[in-house]
Design a protein that fits this description.
By secondary structure, this protein is α/β, with parallel strands linked by helices. It is built from six helices and four strands, in the order ααβαβαβααβ. It has a four-stranded parallel β-sheet with strand order 1-2-3-4, sandwiched between helices.
């Protein structure tokens, strides 16, 4: 999804700095701090990282649960913390949660908790960092590298199920998320919101 946002932003004329795992470890505060020191001033920040593995509640210990919270929530926190002082006037921060923040699934309690925490953080920072704007995107099913762990048959079944369930009768693309991110970056009157980009899944 970060790739989609980078491509859409670049097509709109932005000078994009994209940082994957090989460039910054978002679970390491010092790595995040050093990265933003290297980048310097910037206009907008989008955080899409989501390291960590989901697990059933009764099969996790505190360390396993904390791994996902650290990977999703505290990585978003750290990126926002060290980018915010470098954002120019009119800048923005966009975080990424997911539909499970409001529609939990069995076997993913920490995913729900972390997504909900990210959304709460976005609203809080919209007040604390004002007039910088802070928003969150909540994607539905997006056919991205997130599902590379599935074999092609399983992945195609997942596509078909989500396509059939969505009111728009299509599945999300990384470009859909990219377009939403650019909208939130460029609209100066939107802050503290959670933008659902889910094809209407929240309605069904």
């Amino acid at each position: 999804m970060g790739q989609g946002a980078a491509e859409v932003a670049a097509a709109a004329g932005a000078d994009v700095v994209a940082a994957g795992r090989e460039r910054v470890d978002v679970t390491d505060e010092q790595s995040v701090k050093a990265f933003f020191e290297e980048v310097g001033e910037l206009d907008h920040l989008l955080v899409t990282a989501s390291p960590g593995s989901r697990g059933a509640f009764l099969e996790q210990d505190v360390a396993g649960a904390r791994e996902y919270m650290d990977g999703k929530f505290f990585s978003s926190w750290a990126c926002a913390r060290y980018a915010a002082p470098r954002l120019r006037e009119g800048g923005s921060i966009t975080l990424l949660s997911g539909g499970m923040a409001t529609r939990p699934q069995a076997g993913a309690s920490m995913v729900t908790a972390a997504f909900a925490a990210v959304e709460g953080l976005g609203r809080a920072l919209a007040i604390e960092l004002a007039p910088l704007r802070v928003n969150t995107i909540s994607p539905g099913f997006v056919d991205s590298s997130m599902f590379d762990f599935l074999d092609e048959d399983a992945r195609e079944q997942l596509r078909q199920e989500n396509r059939a369930a969505a009111p728009v009768k299509r599945i999300g693309t990384i470009e859909d998320i990219g377009s939403a991110a650019v909208f939130l970056m460029t609209n100066p009157y939107v802050t503290g919101t959670v933008l659902q980009v889910d094809g209407g899944h929240a309605l069904v």
